[in-house]
Amino acid sequence: MSALAQLAQHVWLYPRDEDPNKVQPNVGVIITERHTVLVDAGNSPRVARRVLLALDERGAPPVSYIIYSHSHWDHVFGAMALGAPAIAHETCRKHLLELAGKPWSQAYLQEELQRTPAREIGLRAMGRAIEDWRGFRIVVPEITLSKRLRLHLDGLTVEIEHVGGQHAPDSLIVRVPEDRVMFVSDCYYPPPPHQRKPSDTLDWDMIERLADEDMDIYVDGHGDPRSREEFRRLTIEREA
């Protein structure tokens, strides 16, 4: 797996796995003199440990916060290996509290697959991501927001805003205005595959609204970073 890729002065990326079957998204990394903030936690403790090794190689400070972009498993299941409090939307906390009470195991995944066959792709990816369910736990957010939250870290601003959307109602975006970087994660994606209809598309209005902001780099959950113009050009599909 690739090491950290630098996007701006304080912003790095632990890149996604390009194999879509692994459902391993990007992990954003914001580093200041005394703090490291992660945007998402990886899809498993194994991936989170790799992120920590990459941070050590960079001489980064310890992780102070994990910001959950939303509550989907592939963005939060790594948090137990990171040893830091999580920040999320209040709806995300409610959902993860419910998930934390499930009897996580390969047997439980098989039961879920029988109950909801439409989730097969995600459930099988989950089973591959977690090599050992013994001791597994979901880190429920300690800090929540309803609309906005701002962190001030060694002179750097991290802005967190709830935007919702069709992919996940608890979706957040994270801005680093001094570096002109925005983490949009999956907020403009269609609904998850098991909930998706053939007519579902990207959220064009969300893309246009976010592309109007004064950012240079847009980072989503499962693709390469884009410039503002590249992000805006996603809407061309609507016009085709």
Notes on the protein architecture:
It is a single chain. This protein has 240 residues and is α/β, with parallel strands linked by helices. It has one domain (5-239): Ribonuclease Z/Hydroxyacylglutathione hydrolase-like (Metallo-beta-lactamase, Chain A), CATH 3.60.15. The protein has helices at residues 45-58, 73-76, 90-100, 106-115, 120-129, 204-211, 228-232, 236-239; strands at residues 5-6, 11-14, 27-31, 36-39, 63-67, 86-89, 143-145, 148-153, 156-162, 172-176, 181-185, 217-220, 226-227. The chain has a seven-stranded mixed β-sheet. Strand 4 (36-39), helix 1 (45-58) and strand 5 form a beta-alpha-beta unit. Helix 4 packs antiparallel against helix 5. The longest helix has 14 residues, at 45-58. The model has no long low-confidence stretch (mean pLDDT 95).
